[in-house]
């Protein structure tokens, strides 16, 4: 198992009920200077329409689906979520 943190560039919007999001990930290919990125090379080699298991967000915010969160122990609902 390999875990890396990425931030979506297109957050989950109210119209995206299937929970989709987009990521922009720079691939670090192996070279004489560095071994390359383990996760980025794995994602780069994935066939189109292949699935990867993801989780998130991480930290002190718990996401319960349907735009429902627990933040600092309080249940909260947001109509729109933007992740920087």
Q: Short description, anyone?
A:
The chain is mainly beta and 84 residues long.
Can you walk me through this structure?
Its main location: membrane. This is Flavoprotein pyridine nucleotide cytochrome reductase-like FAD-binding domain-containing protein. InterPro entries: CBR-like, Cbr1-like_FAD-bd_dom, Riboflavin_synthase-like_b-brl. It is found in: Membrane. Keywords: FAD, Flavoprotein, Membrane, Oxidoreductase. With 84 residues, this protein is mainly beta. The chain is built from one helix and three strands, in the order αβββ. It has one helix at 38-45; strands at residues 61-63, 68-71, 74-77. Strands 1-2-3 form a three-stranded antiparallel sheet, with no helix packed on it. β2 and β3 (74-77) form a beta hairpin. The mean pLDDT is 78.
Comma- or semicolon-separated keywords:
84 residues, 3 strands, mainly beta, 3-stranded antiparallel beta sheet, single chain, 13% strand, 1 helix
Topology at a glance:
Blueprint: H1 38-45, E1 61-63, E2 68-71, E3 74-77
Antiparallel strand pairs: 1-2, 2-3
Domain Flavoprotein pyridine nucleotide cytochrome reductase-like FAD-binding: 2-63
Protein name: Flavoprotein pyridine nucleotide cytochrome reductase-like FAD-binding domain-containing protein
Organism: Stereocaulon virgatum
């Amino acid at each position: 198992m390999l875990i890396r943190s990425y931030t979506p560039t297109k957050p989950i919007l109210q119209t995206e009920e299937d929970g989709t999001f987009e990521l922009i990930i720079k691939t670090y290919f192996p070279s004489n200077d560095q071994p390359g990125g383990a996760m980025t090379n794995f994602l780069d080699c994935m066939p189109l329409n292949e699935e990867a298991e993801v989780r998130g967000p991480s930290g002190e915010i718990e996401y319960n689906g349907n735009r429902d969160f627990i933040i600092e122990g309080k249940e909260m609902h947001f109509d729109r979520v933007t992740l920087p």
